Amino acid sequence: MLSLLHRAGGRFKRKLAAFATDAGASTAIEFAFTVPIFVTLSIGILWVGITYLAREHLETIAENVAYQLEVQNPALTGGLTQAQFQQYICNNLSGIFDCNKVLVDYELASSTYNPYPNLTFSNGVPQYTGNYTAPTAGTGGTWVLTVMYLWPTIQLPFGLSFGDQADGSLLLMSVQVFTVDT
Q1: pLDDT for 58-73, tens place per residue?
Q2: Buried b vs exposed e over 22-35: b needs ≥16 C-beta within 10 Å?
Q3: Which of 63, 81, 82, 105 could, after both became Cys, cross-link 130 (CB 3.0–4.6 A)?
Q4: Average pLDDT score, the chain
Q5: CA 124, CA 127: separation in Å to the nearest integer?
Q6: Is 106 exposed, middle or buried (0-12, 13-18, 19+ CB in 10 A)?
Q7: Residues facing residue 127 across a β-bridge
Q8: Phi then psi for 113, rounded to 5 degrees?
Q9: What's the rounded Cα separation, in Å, for the pair 16 and 13?
Q10: Where are the domains of the chain?
Q11: Which of 66, 75, 73 is nearest to 107 (CA)?
Q12: Which H/E stretch holds residue 88?
C-alpha cells in the first residue's frame, strides 16, 4: 500500500513538473478554461444536495407534526397559540434552520381553501401572517398544515443562483392535508 502511494506521489510530481515546464502554454490555457467550470459544477452539486436534504427534513417534520395532530396528541391539542405552535415545530427542526424564517399556517380546510392571500411581500421577500386555528381535541374535519422556510442560498460564479425570492433565498414548502375523525 505504501509503495502504491509512493509511486502515485512520484507520478504526480512528474506531471506537475511537466506542467510547469510546458513551453506551449496550451496546458495552462486548457486548465484556465476547465477549472472554473469544474469548481462551479462541484459547488452547485454540493449545494443542490444540501438544499435537497433540508427540504426533505422540513417535509419529514411537517409530516410528523401532522400525524401528531391527526392522532390528537395532547401536547398539541391543548389550545396552543400560533407562536407556541411555531415554536413546537422549530424545536423539532435541526440546527440548520433559523426559527425566525419558519412560516406556519394551520387551519380547517374548506372548499375554497387558499393560503396565498395571507402571503405578502416586503421588498420581494415573503412575509406570512397565516391563518391559524388552535388545535383542540375533538375538532374533526379536513385540516391543512403548511410549513414554509426561507432557505439561504449562495451566489455562484457566472451569475448563477438557486434562489427564487428577491433576497436570493429559496422558499421551501411542505403542505400536509389530513382528516381528523371525531
Answers
A1: 999 999 888 888 887 7
A2: eeeeeeeeeeeeee
A3: 105
A4: 78
A5: 9
A6: buried
A7: 120
A8: -60, 125
A9: 5
A10: 2-180
A11: 66
A12: helix 82-92
